Amino acid sequence: MSQTEKPMKISKQLRLQGQGFLLSRNNSEMLMGIIQHFDCGADLHSCLLTLEMIFSTLLKDRNMYIEVIPLKPIEQTPENQYKDWLRNVYEECFTKIVHTMENASPKIQTQGLSTAMNLLSYEGKYPLESKGTFENYVPLSKLKSILIKMLSNKQNNVQLVNKYTEYLLFDDILFFTWKLLPSLTAKSNPNETYIMNYLALLEKLQVHQNNDTKILCSEGNGSFFTFDETVTIKSLNKIWHCVMHWEHTPLTHKKMLIVLLERVLTNLEKPLLLTDFLMDSLDVGGSISLLALQGIFTMIQVHNLDYPNIFTKLYSMFEPEIFHTKYKARLFYLSDLFMSSTHLPENLVAAFAKRMARLALIAPSEDIIIICNFIGNLILRHPGLKCLLNNSDRDTANTDPYIMEERDPVKSNAINSSLWEIKTLQSHVQPSVSSAAKFINTPLPSVEWDLSKVLDKTGDDMFDKEVKKFSKLIVLQFEKPNGASIGKGERLLQFWDF
Amino acid sequence: MAKTKNKKGALSDRYHIKNEPKKLNSFEVHVNKEKLKVIGKKQKNDRGLPGISRARAIQKRKSTLLEEYKVQNKNNVFLDRRIGEKINMDSESKAIARFTALKMKSHSKRSIFNLADDTILTHKGQTLSEIEKFDDPKSDDDFSDDENQSGKLDTNFVGEAHFGGGILKNTGKEGAMTHKDLINQLIFESKKRKAEKQKAKEATLELTEKLDLDWKDLIPLVTKDGKNEEIRKPKVDDYDKIMRELKFEKRGTVSDRLKTEEEIAKEEMESLEILEQERIKRMNKQDTEDTSKLKHRSADDLDDDFIYDYDNDDEENMLSYNKEGEPNLQIQANVNGTVVKSTVNALAEEVQDEEENQETYKDVSSEEELETDSEDNLSDLKISDNESEEENCNIIEEIPVENDTPIRTPKQASLKIETVNNNKESSEKEIEHVEIPFTFKLPDTYKGLLNILEKYDGHQHLVIERMIKCNHPSLSEQNKDKLGLLFAYLLQYLNDLFSDDLQKDDLKKHFNIFQLLVPQIYSLAQLNNQNAHNSMLEVIKEKYEDYKKKHKTHPGLEVLIFFKLVSVLFPTSDFRHQVVTPCYTFMEMILTKCRVNNRKEISYGLFISSLILEYTALSKRYLPAVINYLSGLLHMMIPKIGVKLLKIPPPFKPTSTLLVLLNNYSLESFNSLKLNFADFSEEEITSEYQVRALYSVIKILQQFLEHYIILPSHVEIFEKATYFLEKIPLNNYPREVQNNANCLVEELRKSKIERRLQYLVLEASKPKALRLYEPKIQVVYDGKSHKSQSKEKAHINKLLHKVKREKKGALREIRRDNAFLGRFKIGKQLQSDKERKEKVKRIYSEAAMQQSELNEIDRKKKRKN
């Protein structure tokens, strides 16, 4: 019990001390005591809360406000001295608070951030000194120190960044973050942690103003600044120019591509500069090349990029391993987009169809359905491919004319083949797969299959669907078992000794 | 018009007088003019005889209405029914008429069979019928006792009183009474006598009644001896007894003769054949449906091959409603007796899904244009794909081959088998010792069952068998449900048997229990198939839910047991089966997702592979995951020496060498190359296990090849497996395994060479039928407006019309009646006036005569004067 009581006591004690300090100016030693306690590193959480309480009250009561009259030295009254001292303590404490963001415990990290941001907000609302004509301002130096801590190169600050997104809802913080960021961007090659933190932050930053205007550092409508989108876009371009030239590990490479696709690409001034980067990414393989593929697709679509070997690249991505990756649905989705053109050569499309059919022979059930629909759509778009289903010119073949090992889809001789794989899959154990593969038996429909319906299906979905199927017919085995063996269908006991 | 009326009236009078002339005067015929002549139509009312019909009407009124009018306001009517009084007759003819009337009456229909009706038999003045009433004769007797029966005054008195000289005569006797006294005395005496008589009568009555009562008491005494002898029944003869028994014995109804064994066997075979045919039908369900049966065609089908975009799978579950308005589509699950329905919710969800899909479908066009990647969240890529990452790492690093597991010699293995056998024997012996009661109550709780089964450990199957026999559903209605519960409990029991981490011996024992229990579970399922179906499905669902949480870890052994049970209980060859199809999905998931790192896990996968072989043994259907898995195992047997890596998709690792056999076993012989239960309990992979694993993989692959040889792409299916198999160095394996492997490779090669690929040809589509249109019917205009109304209403309208017409007729009749009566009244008035005038005239004339006579006399007097 004593262990649990102790921290309670300390937090209470600290709060009492803080309140005592606020009551009377003579109790300044109490503040020093709290700061000392804070320095020693114990009970950081409650210390942070107490300091926040003290300084926010001080700021609110304008206890640190020294009126500056232009062309007049500040009077050396004890009042002003006290205020000066307070301000020094405040600055000192702020750096310490920001320092807690490097603490090992994520709880204290986030608390540090929120304390710092709260103090920042109070300072903005009740400035320490009047600056120009505006009543409020954003204490940029403090914001910068916070950002520096967040973009640390020592530890992964995903949690901090997530916490920080709460503050990004305020227009002023968002705007000034954009403004500060170019100066914080590393020019030479930073380490991986820094890049990850940086990209995580960048991912959360939006270029445009928030829908509902909220200002953190002012109680009013924020007349002290205007959200200028050209500034943010400009700084984004500036940042990206640096980011592009960093050295990337596969992890950061991927993250960067994601950020690029989600946030950056639409706002870049000269996106065609990215082409080389994307081309290089395409050769990396795996999910990175897939992301690059998506980028290239956007470039082709929006920015008229011409890239001749894109289909060969896409073709090479269809490997047996794709079924065990997370981006399988994306690949199918993208290739559906790529193949949506009706002006592609038939033998190329046939190669795709044939390759997918081959892959379907070893794919999990849910993917076979996707593939069947995909091939169906291909044939619908390219009526010339009907020879894959209906080839009455030739009779039989010894081997499949299609060459699976050929890297170039055009040379794979797929157009001379036939979709026997789909025929095989008609005897798949799963009734849904089997019926999906039956499309080659009947005349093709006039409307394409909707791929988006099946893309996200997983094995679990299939199970649920089958379980939910209700048929009144209940059929039991009619052959009486002999021990654990069932008559003629028994196979298990051929391989197992019990 | 008045003229014609008059004419008619005259005519009627004439008719009355003339009494129907034979030839119709053409002036008397009224011809009804016809506006529209229809040929061949018979007319009833084309001509009429107004005179005749009027006369007839008047005649009729005279006999009915007039008569009524005459008796109007009169209460009684005197009717003289005497025969012959109305008409003047002489008395003789009157008598004759009366006699004939009497005779006629006796000849009436009713009295025709009363033969002796007219003669009533009497006795002493009384009719026989009266006598035969047998009244109490008591009262009659009284009078016979008395002297004067008649109740008249006695003679003396009469003599004296009536004829004794009159009232005024003095008797002269001294003390003689006066007449008044005498009368008084007389009255007194008669009263006294009456009272005495009454008294005596009452006494006798009393006595007789008493006597009657006494007699009743005495009856038993009197009759006792004689009757007893009569009552005593004669001793029942055995013969009679038997005879009666035989007589009243229940007779057997006529029935077919008993079937001979051969016939029974034949019937069984036939029913099995029918079942088999049904099974094959179910197996090929989809195939036949697609080709032979036309799909549903909407009435709006435009023959343009447009197919409404629905999931092929959903077509069986067409939404329909029953009489109560509930959807027929039901998802029903029976969990230990409680029924869970989830129709509406599930449906609602589906509907929602569909709506969403539609929405997305709508949005596609706009999305495609606006497709900027900011909408896309790239979630799939953000998740760091561990697997691929791991792989990548593995590709880069070369892991040295490790295989320093101690190798158990086959001797030890064989020893083990022997001990196991011993165990089995000893347990068999034990069975004989324990006594098991023949009747069992069905346990109400799972614990109850557990207790019973624990009590008779080793005889669980017998216990269950007897339970089923004692509580057969044909014995009681409730038994069916209870047995259903027992089925669920047994599943739970199996679950508990296999779910713990078991040691080898325990496993063996438990599997023996399972083996023995299977037939009982099978018969239980047959008794209540609905319940078996639902509980099994529920179990599979539950297990899957558990498994879903951790995709990569193998579920417990009990799942394997349930899979096996499914193949025992349900036909696994069906195209779609509610229990089997989810099992396929489940097994596929296990094979593609679960880790393969140790002996236990490999055995698990091999068990499932062989189970899938069993499931598809009849239907010969294809599951890619099995072949992938077996290829993966083969891959694990290849020593990875070269720099070039052999690619293999997860869950296998490209560098795994777990199953590579290092020791030389080529000369050793194994007792059994089959897998066994020990493989489930141990993790470490021994060389002996490696040998057995390869053997099993080859054997299973062989069977799969046999099954799939009909599929056009079987070469592609086995391509990888062949490739890996050829890479495995077979030298170290025992001879038998080597032979099998070579055999398989040979078969695969052969199949590749022999394959004939038939190019796909679409079925020639049927020629389109000309579109048939509905015949266009034009309405013919016939000048009449036909009301379209219901049958009932038409009937009512018809009746109303009739009533109207009848009312008209009736009014006309009433009017005519009034006219008739009026005519009659005025006639009568005229007649009475006429009579009165005549009377007045007569009186006048008489008075005039009188006056004239008086005048005459006066004149005579005057003359005289």
From TrEMBL, chain A:
A GO CC annotation given for this chain: small-subunit processome
InterPro entries with a match to the protein in the record: CCAAT-binding_factor, Noc4
Lineage top rank: taxon: Eukaryota
Any GO BP: ribosome biogenesis
Signal peptide positions (record): none
Location of the CCAAT-binding factor domain: 289-437
Family recorded in the similarity comment: Belongs to the CBF/MAK21 family.
Name of the protein this chain belongs to: CCAAT-binding factor domain-containing protein
Native species: Psylliodes chrysocephalus
From TrEMBL, chain B:
Biased composition (Acidic residues): 366-378
Alphabetical GO biological process terms: maturation of SSU-rRNA
One GO cellular component term: Noc4p-Nop14p complex
Record keywords, A-Z: Nucleus, Ribosome biogenesis, rRNA processing
Signal peptide region: none
InterPro entries from the UniProt entry: Nop14
Source domain of life: Eukaryota
Pfam family for this entry, one: Nop14
Compartmental location: Nucleus, Nucleolus
Region Disordered, residue ranges: 349-391
Biological function: Involved in nucleolar processing of pre-18S ribosomal RNA. Has a role in the nuclear export of 40S pre-ribosomal subunit to the cytoplasm.
PANTHER family named among the record's database cross-references: NOP14 (PTHR23183), NUCLEOLAR PROTEIN 14 (PTHR23183:SF0)
Stated family: Belongs to the NOP14 family.
Name under which the protein is recorded: Nucleolar protein 14
